[in-house]
């Protein structure tokens, strides 16, 4: 049966499938009005290209699945937050800090001239603070009489050198410096009555704080004439040392806890919770892919979005029960997310034209940065309210329900079911694709072994692992370590990460659509290889810079994360653009494997932390993984069909053209 329409086809006309009144110009005026209302606004936004409406609807529908996983990451920070404020204190130890140091033990004549180089030396420490007794086995920086005179006359020079000594030489150099320079001969008022003790090695600072905490117990200069805190005993980490002078006077700040944290999780427990989402993806990705293939995108995505909303709503209740229920909830959230890439594959196959697949697929992955954006904007504000984390998880539930409802009402599994698609656009979408009957009745066996053993497949999975490792590290892990020393500013943190997610979304949209602008004269494979290598290597190097937490301020870390956001946006123009070209007719199977890679990326970061136990080491390892993935992608990724697709043999042999005819009538034929 031919798809013949009685009225001229127009890109802006709306054909309501399944209706007997839309086949002629003399149809019922009421139905005509309803059709105009349904497509009026959409016509203005996407004239003649309603498939882009489905693209936007799909992104909105899928984004909440990833958003709920990231909400848990920031929720852990909110759930473990203490409400507190700082108060200044001053403690006089009543001792000379250098009274136990023998200033006559070194003959100034024997000390070499000043040398600002710091050779590698070793030191042993019998006891440091509060005894201030150090045993040094190797010489360090020294001063002669002339340089000593210079230091006493120009204390600002001494301050600079002393700061360098403290930072570079730490416990080794400070003792020799103190012996060489009698501090009683220096006007310390010119040095702001001391130096910043936080330049010391962290272990030394901790010992010093422990010593001070014994003296500060007796102070009564805080609010309500109480001790350090109203709600719990003081901790060493509650003390911030600002300055210490040589007379033993200590200025600093003390944390006053106004409200205890609702929950207390160790660092390992936090990473076990976060890693459970990746475990859920690995457990459920295969059975979920079968459900998506059997029941279609509309039903399965709606179902898993509703389940995700239920699980995120139950999260506060599970948290009150214990750690294991929280992990189970996270596993189930990961299971809901595991339908993302299979759904993206089916949406691309059903709605993209043959020439638009390379664009449609990476654009659908915009659900990831959009989910990251939606997870954060109001989280910081809710954390400061009386309901705290409960309100944050509740708002995520409502947002998920809204996006799911919009997806269910608007999305259809194929163009023939949509009330927005014209006959012209449906023909355009289906042009060059297998006909309904042939596609449904073709029992060709999927070459699973060939797909898994192909370098293109393995490279794409590796790049997906690295991408989700970066997403997990930036949006799930690092919020728990950012601005923790600045009043635990959740509002600022949530705003920053929301902007990073929005930045990735905007740049990904532009770069994916305008990828050919970069290297106009380059072959597609060359362009993809170069962009992929540069972006991944740069991300890896920046991850390495983030390792130096004692040098880099939080504001600089935030800047680097924004740069990483821009670089990761190039994925839409690199390996994600290759997926449809590499996999061809096996796009769905290929996407299921990418979903597996996403689960590995979400869990591997947490496993690495449990192994190394340090966030800075984690930055380094993820950076190395990213660089390796970029190099492998540069060497192996090619913008052409993989050997398992047998693209050269894809044409029908002469005489078998009858196989291309539809065995089952398309839905649009029923309306003719």
Any overview of this molecule?
Keywords: Membrane, Transmembrane, Transmembrane helix. Residues 1-33 are annotated as: Disordered. This is MFS domain-containing protein. InterPro entries: MFS, MFS_trans_sf. The protein has helices at residues 29-45, 51-79, 145-153, 155-180, 202-216, 267-295, 297-321, 323-337, 340-351, 357-364, 367-374, 379-383, 389-410, 423-430, 436-441, 448-453, 455-477, 490-513, 524-546, 554-568, 575-583, 587-612, 615-636, and strands at 83-92, 123-124, 135-136, 239-244, 249-259. The chain is mostly helical and 672 residues long. It has two domains: 40-81 and 263-645, Growth Hormone, Chain: A (Up-down Bundle); 84-259, no CATH class. The strands form two sheets. The chain has a three-stranded antiparallel beta sheet. A two-stranded antiparallel sheet has the order 2-3. Strand 4 (239-244) and strand 5 form a beta hairpin. Helix 2 packs antiparallel against helix 8, helix 17 packs antiparallel against helix 21 (575-583) and helix 22 runs antiparallel to helix 23. The longest helix has 29 residues, at 51-79. The protein is globular and about 80 Å long. The termini are close together. Mean pLDDT is 71; it is low at 1-40, 93-151, 154-201, 215-230 and 649-672.
